[in-house]
Amino acid sequence: MQKTSTSPRVKIAALVFSVAIFCAALVGVDLLISRLSPTGVNELDAQLGWRLKKNLIYKREKTALSGRKFDVTLTTDPFGTRTYGANRDAPVKILVLGDSYTGEPYASDDQMWYAAFVRHLARLTNRPLDDFYVVAAASGGYGTLQSLLLSDEVKSFYTPTLLVHQFCDNDFANNSFELERKSIVLNQWMLRPYLAKDRQTIVFHEETLARLYRSMLFRSSLFGLFDRALQVSLSNHYGGYLMISQKDKDAYLKELRATTYDPEAIDLTRFLLAKIRKNFESAPALLVDCPIEDSTFNRIWVDVAKAAGFVPITAPSDRLVDARTRGEADLFGADGAHLSDRGNEEMGRILAESVKELGVLGGQ
Length: 364
Known about the structure:
Elements: H1 8-36, E1 42-45, E2 49-52, E3 57-63, E4 69-75, E5 82-84, E6 92-98, H2 100-103, H3 113-124, E7 132-138, H4 144-154, E8 162-167, H5 171-174, H6 177-180, H7 186-189, E9 194-195, E10 202-203, H8 208-216, H9 221-238, H10 249-260, H11 263-279, E11 285-289, H12 295-307, E12 311-313, H13 315-325, H14 341-358
Parallel strand pairs: 6-7, 6-8, 8-11, 11-12
Antiparallel strand pairs: 1-2, 3-4, 5-7, 9-10
């Protein structure tokens, strides 16, 4: 019996049908994942790389390092900023810039360190809470250039009487494309804008892979899941955030020192901070760091802060590091680095005491 051969048209139709079914299945899986595991609080942004979504209400249960569970609600206004206070026309208008310690949902809006700062400051200065209002413009992983670009937006609709910039030890490297390319954190350096060597032009990573990455991240829950799994795998492989194995300790420590103390990255950060300071030159400006342990590194950011026109405040970081050393796990999130609701309360209280002692308060 003679076999009947399948015509080319039927083969092409079968292939197209198979591809369509496969694509439909991927879309279905992506939609299912988006319901079970939403893409989070951020979205792509052509200028900033990413930013907090506007008019957002985000609720999650979080876990402290101690194992205690607590609820978190993060909300944003029509500008994509977090706020605290009932009186937007308050005489003391505070603008907070920062990264994940300010913009990520590690505590609810009214439990964040800047909210605690305002409450304690009101008590210490014998002023009603309605005298204070906070706009917090930040997002997880932000470098200083992103804070500058976001501050350019904020100054068009908000005039602070006090500027507080929340700094972190990785900000120096975040501002350098050459240094960040050594990092496993793809969803930062493939998305983040950088200042070119001329310190005027803003550039993005423009390789094909980076363009494809930007086109998918935050738009596809399936891709986001894959991205998180990849970075956990890379972190486990290298033993940290640098793409060099910690098994080779000498090489790793040499690279870590080079990244941490890079003179160009430090000077670039000072340059960017000075531009932020100029945006709000009529208001007192504070720089407060997240809990970091290296005292030598603390001296670097303190010097940079002063050179850029900020008043550095080290007490919150120093005391929280001491608390971590004493094993006060309830003050920290499950990752052991970010602050829990109670850690945020402690940071805000210490900052308020420092500001009261310094007598630095705008809008009096």
